[in-house]
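Report of the visiting student (M.T.), summer placement. My assignment was to run the structure pipeline on a short list of targets and document each run. The first record concerns Acetylornithine/succinyldiaminopimelate aminotransferase.
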Amino acid sequence: MSQSITRQNFDEWMMPVYAPASFIPVRGEGSTLWDQQGKDYIDFAGGIAVNALGHANPDLRKALEEQAAKFWHTGNGYTNEPILRLAKQLIDATFADKVFFCNSGAEANEVALKLARKYAHDNFGPNKSGIVAFKNAFHGRTLFTVSAGGQPAYSQDFAPLPPQISHAIYNDLQSASELINENTCAVIVEPMQGEGGVVPADPTFLQGLRELCDRHNAVLIFDEVQTGVGRTGELYAYMHYGITPDVLSTAKALGGGFPIGAMLTTDKFSKVMVVGTHGTTYGGNPLAGAVAGRVMEIINTPEVLNGVKQRHAWFVERLNKINQKHQLFSEVRGLGLLIGCVLQPEYSGKAKLILQAAAQEGLMMLIAGANVVRFAPALIVSEAEVQKGLDRFERACERFLAGEQS
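After the run finished, the structure tokens were exported:
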């Protein structure tokens, strides 16, 4: 007989690096989840922008089950058909000539930064090692990527950190230009900061970074872990801006919930990564390749990408109506289905209280820092689910405001 599991078991058995919700989801379908007690939740968190096609998607289940009946893993002494097909899909759909597969966004950013340093060292000498990133960025939790991320709270306890990483102000080209020089090997930037507050980049800012990197022979890396695979209404956000990076990292939605990450680049840069320079045991396994290939087939279509833009309009229209009534937010911002509501100054630091009120109302959502509530639902969330979820969100806002006034 299986053991009964409760939320308390997390506190007893798990390393306390998370503070999960008080309920445990056990079943999902589309954009609805049910907990152990049978209560339903509309899912606007999307597994942190991962579950792009919702829960228990029948097409993804079929792809996984078909491959699971064949073989699961061989290691990278051998290649496999599903991952090669996925590589060709990504190459055909983007600027890239070559792909490296891994298991997460952090790993994709790790190899992107390693590639940039190796390219610079091979072509310009050992002094060209500087990396310019941005304040409030998030690039992962490895020591290298957490150092590139511009949030000291995530890195300061793990010093000494990898050296020669500096941080400019996001959307401030002058700040970046003061740091980018002949010793810069890479600039890493999110086209829209996700964890940093759902802040879209200004087109002139990204264009300026492209020009600075060209001038100083630095590799321009776009971290599209959160913005990629249809999230902004384009397959990748660089397409929204019309600015092409040298290297792109992708993960999260790429597997629709199955762990996979990838780094995309051109022949010019990929050729420095020869046999033995990098690797991963699980990266590029056939299970991930089969599922992600089906994800790409579904999402990289006009129907789904245009549908993201339509759903953005549903969200923003309703959120603005809610805000007109309650005056809780100073701004609603974002692209596609990555949307942030910025709290008014008088509610500063209280985004998590709204998150908790939402859970009580049967809504799963996210925060992006202490001052922004964030939505990253499935790209195919239905209009009925959007309205039902936003009804619950409005009640959560009312619950929060009533608590503030009591």
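The domain at 71-299 is CATH 3.40.640.10 (Aspartate Aminotransferase; domain 2). The mean pLDDT is 96. I thank the supervising group for their guidance throughout the placement.
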